[in-house]
Amino acid sequence: MDQQATSLGVKGFFDRYPYFSFLMSIYSLKDVHFEEDVLYLANEIKDLHVSVLFVYGIGLGKCHDILKNWLDQDPLRQVVFLEHDFSVISKGALEGVLDQIFASERFHLCFSESKNDLAELAAIQFASHSIEVVCQKKYKEIDGAFFKRLKSNLMRLSVLSFAKVQEKMHYHHLFKNMVSNFASLEKAFNVHKMEGSFKNCAAFIVGAGPSLAQAIPKLKSFEEKALILAGGSSIIALAKSGIEADLGFAIDPNREEYTRLKQAHFLSMPLIFGSRLQKDAREIFAGAKGYVKTATGGPFEAWMEEVLNIEGNSLLGIEDYEALSVTIIAVKTALLLGANPIIFVGMDLAYQNKERYLPGILPKTTLALEKDIVDQRTSEASIRKKGRKGKFVETAYKWVMESRCLSNIAKMHPQTRFIDATEEGLLIKGIEMVSLDQIELSSSYPLKAKIHKEIEEAKLSLTKKQIYEPLERLKQSFENVKNCIEEILLDPLMPKSIVLELDIKSEIAYELILCHFDHHSPIISEEGKHIVNTYLETLCLQLMD
Fold it and tell me: What SS3 string covers 97-120?
């Protein structure tokens, strides 16, 4: 056993972590000697505004008061010690130091005898939107290279872990988006049917970074010579510069996507969207709408795609989930279409004079809200990395993750030439850098006409009846579950309850959605009944439209 989970609400180290009393009885322990630098740790954490502070190295308790003072500044803060040296823990336990520390429920321990497992274990056990990772000074002196890797991996994995937790907790919101998007497929086209239709046509993947301003004049000269693909904020950036992308992309399920997109001057280009997109954002676009399979909506998404017989494999592989950005969807679509080369423009993935986008991209309301945020979101946390021109740039963990993902995509598609024509920002390793001014595309194509033709041929042959039939089945299944729960709650001890529980678990609604809820909180409860009603209301409202 290499790990130990936290048990809250019990005072005393061995009460919370009985695992260690067993280990101490069977292992011979080495003596531990090192000095803790209290001032060093105090300086490391004095300006931190995060929810969870990970401290590599539990030490021998001398830094406890410093960490407690940091906790006392905010009742929601937590401290998690990361440790792999059992001898350090044993000495602290035997001397009673750890009893003093772990008497507080806001101190936790994440232990693994394999230190390479610490980052993944901690990210899963203590998922949070806002973390920082610091180190006891002696640990940094002894194993600084490992700490650097540990921090990078934990920051990255924490972003992914928290996103998964949030989606499970708020799946009913995602479900609402998916139901609406599937209901709209009667008039949509299937992007996967366009596979290979633009073989060896150049494609620009446009970002909304500050450097895009310099690229706009040259980019305009490539209209009808190359596909111009833009997602989210870059659609607005191009629109404000008088360029309409050939294909627009939107996948984010949050309201912010709609708030940004509604600023655009024209949105008549075809939209490529996934099942997660918010309804309002989809309806902003007046042009044709194409559905793309992303495998990001869970079992319900997969079930609907199967019963509706939507052709094609998911654009995203396991290796792509580190980013899950609209840019990755655009790149994967370009590959699906057969585009070659694929050229990145405006993909700064870094701040330029503290700006992350071209001026005017973010609404004033969003900027005002961001100024009021105290706890720094991990994904937005600033980090210095090597830039495109050999100089270090200020970037964020979400962009580092996106850069890694883009590098992996290029590596996995050696038959396609990838070109990075962005002048500033974060380096995307393994991708050829060429100045945009040096790129020449001589041939012109009637690209917009060809796109229109390909879209017409890729139309989904679905009727409203075909789409609504599985939704009706799911609605009836939720009603069956609701009736079973209500009957059980009237008399939980009646013999029939066992049969009713089995009936619930045989329902398609349970298989696709409710089983995930049941893992965290009993479905047979008033809360469970409320959850079922929430899903039922979503389906009823959609089927009434």
Answer: HHHHHHCCCCEEEEECCCHHHHHH
Query: Does the N-terminal peptide bond of residue 363 adopt cis geometry, omega within 30 degrees of 0?
Result: no
The first and second tokens of residue 237, run together, are 């950036």
Which tokens hold the place of 278? 């918010």
Q: What is the amino acid identity at position 509?
A: A
Q: CA-to-CA distance for 485 and 501, rounded, in angstroms? A: 8
Give one DSSP letter per residue of 363-402, joined into a string.
-HHHHHHHHT--SPPGGG-EEEEEBTTSSEEEEEHHHHHH
What number of other Cβ atoms are within 10 A of residue 544's Cβ? Answer: 6
Rg of the chain (C-alpha set): 27
Q: Count Cα neighbours of 358 within 13 Å in the Cβ-side half-sphere.
A: 24
Helix-then-strand count for the chain, H and E:
23, 15
Q: Which residue would you say has higher pLDDT here, 33 or 462?
A: 462
CA distance 97 to 442: 73
Neighbouring CB atoms inside 10 A of 71's CB total 17
The pTM score is 0.87
78-83 sheet: strands from edge to edge: 107-111, 78-83, 52-56, 131-135
Q: For residue 82, give the H/E element and its range.
A: strand 78-83
Residue 289: is its pLDDT beyond 60? Answer: yes
| For the chain, domain boundaries | 13-169, 177-457, 463-544
Q: Do 526 and 489 touch, CB atoms closer than 8 A?
A: yes
pLDDT(456) > 90: yes
Instruction: Determine the Cα–Cα distance for residues 492 and 203; give it in Å rounded to an integer.
Output: 62
pLDDT in tens, 162-181: 988 888 888 899 999 999 99
For residue 512, the SS3 value is: helix
Instruction: Give me the count of residues in the chain.
Output: 545
For the domain made up of 13-169, give the CATH fold.
Protein-Tyrosine Phosphatase; Chain A (3.90.190)
Query: Which residue type occupies 374?
Result: V
Q: Please state, in angstroms and rounded to a whole number, the distance separating the CA atoms of residues 478 and 482.
A: 6
Gap between the Cα atoms of 158 and 129, Å rounded = 8
- Mean per-residue pLDDT over the chain, rounded: 87
**Cis ω on the peptide bond leading into residue 210 (within 30° of 0)?**
no
Instruction: Please give the torsion angle defined by the CA atoms of residues 509, 511, 515 and 516, in that order, rounded to the nearest 10 degrees.
Output: -100
In three-state secondary structure terms, 241 is coil
User: What is the Cα–Cα distance from 4 to 93, expressed in whole angstroms?
Assistant: 15
Beta bridge partners of 507: none
Terminal CA-CA length for the chain: 54
